[in-house]
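Item description
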Amino acid sequence: MKKKNSQNTKKKIVSAAWKLFYDQGYDNTTIDDIVFESGTSKGSFYHYFSGKDALLSSLSYLFDEKYEELTEVMADSMTCVEKMLFLNKELFRMIEDSISIDLLTQLLSSQLITKNEKSLLDHNRTYYKLLRSIVIDGQKKGEISDDNSVNDIVKAYALYERAMLYDWCLCNGEYSLSDYSCKMLPMFLNGYLA
């Protein structure tokens, strides 16, 4: 029970921080603001994070929360490709609507220079577990070719998504991330169909 409360506290802090970063901007958000918005304490904040900058890598936790929500509403009758298209569209729509380009840029650049945990590559994340299960299921049902390993397909898919995010940031959001990905992702996934 204690571990679950601990995870809930961390989630509250992360969710509150990213909401404030979006509403007020990263520079205008203080640790006191985050503590107040999350309904936690400064001690709890510093238990999980060394400072505000440490929250940048926590964006992947926010993405995983969205994937958990989407998993609950995803129809079992969808093909594996339909599931991947659905997850991508909904996550990219959430990013467009609630994550500022500046913060996403900071996250992507921090992953390039960090010597510590690269949260976007953490294969224990919900993201990777979900993708692996979809690909495994797709191969079992004969929807996805087994010419490539599950890990290779998941890696390529994650690479595709990171490339889209990187380009969107480079272009300063001048196009709709979710709409453009809806056009491009089917072509990418077509190479893996059985």
Remarks:
- The longest helix spans residues 2-24.
- The radius of gyration is 18 Å.
- The mean pLDDT is 86.
- The chain has two domains: 1-49, 53-190.
